[in-house]
Specification:
Blueprint: E1 2-6, H1 10-21, E2 26-30, H2 33-42, E3 47-51, H3 59-68, E4 74-79, H4 84-92, E5 97-100, H5 105-119, E6 126-129, E7 132-135, E8 140-143, E9 146-148, H6 152-163, H7 171-178, H8 189-201, E10 208-210, E11 214-216
Parallel strand pairs: 1-2, 1-3, 3-4, 4-5
Antiparallel strand pairs: 6-7, 7-8, 8-9, 10-11
Helix pairs in contact: 6-8
InterPro entries: CheY-like_superfamily, OmpR/PhoB-type_DNA-bd, Sig_transdc_resp-reg_receiver, WalR-like, WH-like_DNA-bd_sf
Protein name: DNA-binding response OmpR family regulator
Keywords: DNA-binding, Phosphoprotein
């Protein structure tokens, strides 16, 4: 899942970004509205964690523009204002969810995960294919009953491949969904992670490479 965190309190923004990465999400962090608008114009994000009171370009404007453009990006709006009327106002702009500050971090993670599931085709929380069972709630993977110890990137790549349900996933799509904007698109990082994932999944081999197209499970 690709997430953009737009929050002007730098320490809070960095902590939120760091925490979401621990849940195998690819996260970009910006601290003002202009930078948020720029990133949204370049990348396809699944979820935007949006501080309503951003400097530069206001969060309300960013939310309104995304809704008018019919963007599939889901919006979780954050604000220090906690009154019912203010929450209603935020949701009326088109935000998908609203969380007042201060918030419980685990609740934030759960809300981001729930919004991310709404972007993609509806699938059960437990994905199964070729003897592989991936539990998206517990972030646990087994194959034929054997527990697999995967890195966060290996887990993220496997989840994207399993969600494709047998379809081909390009290296560019894997970069977009499992890595942040600081990753060099010309590196071999995707090939390296897929190679490690193949080794951990074991026999029989279940990840195919289609030259010039991508990978499929």
């Amino acid at each position: 899942m690709r997430v953009l965190v737009a929050e002007d309190e730098r320490d809070l923004a960095d902590l939120v970004g760091m925490g979401l990465r621990r849940h195998a999400m690819a996260v970009d962090v910006v601290y003002d509205g202009a930078a948020a608008a720029e990133r949204l114009a370049v990348h396809d994000y699944d979820v935007l964690v949006l501080d309503r009171d951003l400097p530069g370009v206001h969060g309300d404007e960013i939310c309104r523009d995304l809704v008018q453009a019919r963007s599939p990006t889901r919006i979780l709006m954050l604000t220090a204002a906690a009154s019912v009327s203010q929450r209603v106002a935020g949701l009326s702009l088109g935000a998908d969810d609203y969380l007042p500050k201060p918030f419980d971090y685990e609740e934030l993670v759960a809300r981001v995960q729930a919004l991310g599931r709404r972007v993609q085709a509806p699938l059960p929380p437990t994905l199964q294919r070729h003897g592989i069972v991936l539990d998206t709630n517990l972030m646990q993977v087994t194959r034929d009953g054997r527990h697999l110890r995967l890195s966060l990137k290996e887990y993220a790549v496997l989840e994207v491949l399993m969600r494709a349900n047998g379809g081909v996933v390009s290296a560019e799509t894997l970069l977009e969904k499992a890595w942040d904007e600081h990753t060099d698109p010309f590196t071999t990082v995707v090939r390296v992670i897929v190679s490690r994932l193949r080794a951990k999944l074991g026999d029989p081999p279940c990840i195919r490479t289609l030259p010039g197209a991508g990978y499929l499970l």
